[in-house]
Design a protein that fits this description.
Alpha-Beta Plaits; 4-stranded antiparallel β-sheet; 6 strands; elongated
């Protein structure tokens, strides 16, 4: 267990949720689709129809400041988009 790091709540994912019953999660890079499906089903008590995954590479970013050019790197991560059965839903704001 412990493959899901956090839910992904953005404008784009909210639009997918409203239209297609899809929810996004940031997951650990070594997690596979079956492990993600099992964890979502046990955590949220829903039926998962499919899981799509996307790997994002870390990118270098730079900016100019008074001290000169500062470079850094954004983290690499893996995103899982989970499609639920019609009628099932996940409420991310229930425990606030």
């Amino acid at each position: 267990m412990g493959f899901i790091i956090k839910p992904l709540v953005t404008e784009k994912m909210t639009a997918l949720t409203d239209k297609l019953h899809r929810f996004g999660f940031i997951v650990r890079p070594e997690a596979n689709k079956l492990e993600i499906k099992h964890e979502v089903e046990t955590l949220y008590n829903v039926t998962v129809l499919s899981v799509n995954t996307v790997r994002y590479a870390g990118k270098t970013k730079s900016r100019y400041t008074k001290q000169g050019l500062i470079t850094g790197r954004s983290n690499a991560f893996k995103k899982a988009i989970v499609t639920l059965k019609e009628g099932d839903t996940i409420d991310f704001y229930s425990n606030i």
